[in-house]
Structure formats: structure tokens, C-alpha cells
């Protein structure tokens, strides 16, 4: 079964789950969820965008690419490692973000991390490995899991927008994390696809 067929199957499954979910799916329309970037680029991009608006994050990413990238792509790990902190500050990055990006680059250069390795790991192992790098939190690791690695059965309890969407549509308080986690477990094996719809139904 190819990916598009699997996606249609997942959407049909969600429509049959319950009336509220069916309404959300029909309101949002066809699911266009697809992998976005490699784990490495998702990690670096997420660090750049931390605590910034979408517009500000896009501007800063463009600067990093313009100053140090190649062919409109973020720099490879080896490039980041050669740059001094002063050089990286010119793109507007804080020292905390610079340190985290350099840790990611070092992990890739040393072979502790690689896109190939991450693809082979189980979900829990991916989260543990990534969160073991200072500066990478659960949310960032989960986004790598759901989007870069295209894992279809994960729900990010750390994502406030998802919790707000569940509160709006299903009446479960966004602060009742345990209850939300239990509720979301009922959407396995398509929790990522369910999340995709929740993000668009806020």
C-alpha cells in the first residue's frame, strides 16, 4: 500500500471514529500531511525559531542561509562547527541558540546522531536521544518524529495548540494533560493524522 492510499485509509478511519471528529475532518478537508525536511534541518530550524513569531523566525532563518548556507539551504554540521560564536551572532542568533546548534552539529559530525540512525529507532528511542542534547526539548523532538520521520502514531502533549483544539472541540480542559493523553490514545494508530486536523481546526 503506497503512502497516499494509507493516508486515505487513515482519514476514513477518523471519519468513522465519532461525530465530532467526522465534522472536523469534513470541515478541514483532505489531509495533505507529508514529511517536511530531514531530521537535521528540522532540528536546526526549530532552534532558530524558538520563542519567535513565524515572521521573525523566517527572517532569521533566511539570514543564516544567506550568510552561511549553500544553495538556499541551512549550513551542514561541518560549517556550523567552523563558525565562531561571534560570526553566528551576526545572523541575530542568541548565544543560547548558537550553543544548541553547535551541539547538534557536533553530534552529527561525531556520528552520535544521523538522519539514517534516527529513522531506524523506535519512537521512544528517538525522543530520548534527541532530548539528551541540551537545548532540545520534548516539543522539538516530537516535531522531528511527526514530520521529518513521518511517524503516524504520535500525539504531542507539549503542544498547546493541540490541547486548545481538543478543549474547543471535545470539551476537555487544555490543562488536564493526563485526561487529554488518555483521550488521544483512542486515536491510535493515527494520532499524528488526528493532530494534523486538530492544528487546522483551532
Automatic annotation (TrEMBL):
GO terms for molecular function: alkylated DNA binding; DNA-3-methyladenine glycosylase activity; DNA-7-methylguanine glycosylase activity. Keywords: DNA damage, DNA repair. Coiled coil: none annotated. Residues 48-202 form the HhH-GPD domain. It holds the Pfam family HhH-GPD. It catalyses: Hydrolysis of alkylated DNA, releasing 3-methyladenine, 3-methylguanine, 7-methylguanine and 7-methyladenine. Transmembrane segments: none annotated. It is an enzyme of class 3 (hydrolase). It comes from the Bacteria. InterPro entries: Alkylbase_DNA_Glycosylase/TA (IPR051912), DNA_glycosylase (IPR011257), HhH-GPD_domain (IPR003265), Hlx-hairpin-Hlx_DNA-bd_motif (IPR003583). SMART domains: ENDO3c (SM00478), HhH1 (SM00278). GO terms for cellular component: cytoplasm; protein-DNA complex. Its EC number is 3.2.2.21. GO terms for biological process: base-excision repair, AP site formation; DNA alkylation repair. SUPFAM superfamilies: DNA-glycosylase (SSF48150). Residues 128-147 form the Helix-hairpin-helix DNA-binding motif class domain. Belongs to the alkylbase DNA glycosidase AlkA family. This is DNA-3-methyladenine glycosylase II. It comes from Leptospira wolffii.
Amino acid at each position: 500500500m503506497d503512502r497516499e492510499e494509507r493516508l486515505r485509509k487513515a482519514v476514513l478511519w477518523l471519519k468513522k471514529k465519532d461525530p465530532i471528529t467526522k465534522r472536523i475532518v469534513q470541515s478541514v478537508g483532505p489531509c495533505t500531511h507529508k514529511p517536511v525536511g530531514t531530521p537535521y534541518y528540522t532540528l536546526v530550524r526549530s532552534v532558530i525559531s524558538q520563542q519567535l513569531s513565524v515572521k521573525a523566525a523566517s527572517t532569521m532563518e533566511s539570514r543564516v542561509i544567506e550568510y552561511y548556507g549553500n544553495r538556499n539551504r541551512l549550513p551542514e554540521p561541518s560549517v556550523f562547527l567552523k563558525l565562531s560564536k561571534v560570526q553566528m551572532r551576526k545572523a541575530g542568533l542568541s548565544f543560547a541558540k548558537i550553543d544548541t546548534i553547535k551541539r547538534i552539529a557536533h553530534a552529527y559530525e561525531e556520528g552520535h546522531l544521523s538522519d539514517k540512525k534516527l529513522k531506524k529507532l523506535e519512537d521512544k528511542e528517538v525522543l530520548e536521544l534527541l532530548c539528551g542534547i541540551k537545548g532540545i526539548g520534548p516539543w522539538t523532538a516530537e516535531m522531528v518524529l511527526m514530520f521529518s520521520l513521518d511517524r503516524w502514531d504520535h500525539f504531542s502533549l507539549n503542544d498547546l495548540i493541540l490541547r486548545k483544539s481538543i478543549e474547543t472541540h471535545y470539551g476537555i480542559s487544555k490543562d488536564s494533560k493526563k485526561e487529554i493523553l488518555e483521550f488521544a490514545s483512542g486515536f491510535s494508530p493515527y494520532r499524528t493524522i488526528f493532530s494534523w486536523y486538530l492544528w487546522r481546526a483551532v
